[in-house]
Amino acid sequence: MPDGAFISEFQLIVFALYPAAMLEWIEKYQKFIAKNALLTDVCGVKRATVYAAQNMLRPDLEFIGAHPMRGKEERGVKFADRHIFDGGNYIVTPTAKNTENAIEKCAALGNAIGARRVSLLSPEKHDEMIGFVSQLTHCLAVALMACKDPAELADYTGDSFRDLTRIAKINDRLWCELFFENKDELLSQMKLFFDQFAAIAKCIETNDEEGLKAAMRLSSARRALFDKTEQDENKEKQKR
What we know:
three-stranded mixed β-sheet; 6 strands; elongated
């Protein structure tokens, strides 16, 4: 059982637990938390956690969701890195139950850990976005590695395959929970990908050169927006 006296020392608590484990901890041990404390998290899903946490809390406590968009494919304390959040994006997911003071404190926490940008999204918008930029990409990496035995590929691959599959070294327990908690959004993003992938396959099958080039030009233009954002941010840092 946690040390109640130790827990009661803090006015800010950040949860770095699996979603279900966090909710279980709050339900069992919130009785020890100091009055008027602020609770937040680093969880990768929000609809399944934020509302549940807020609904079970004592009235003198406040929970506000947050998600630093940085991580590693490695797991365990031995891979801890105090600079892991430097230059990353940090998302705060307030609801109608959150006060302006809590939103400001949570955003300040993002700045304190080195985030380059702090954004505010609803739990619903967060889960839609994360379903595409994170969960879908992890599914793609897993699928790629499941296609063929890497023993016959490891000596011949280039950077493209290694970059695409870096996140295939996945924490199965955590990511299964994240996928299931965001099932509707993830399946929607997977369908979006399937449709685009099928369209590219059709272009190749029918020798549709113009269609294939158009898809490539669109992807190049959209990917360039990421590079432009990084360049603009680097210029802004140099001015300071």
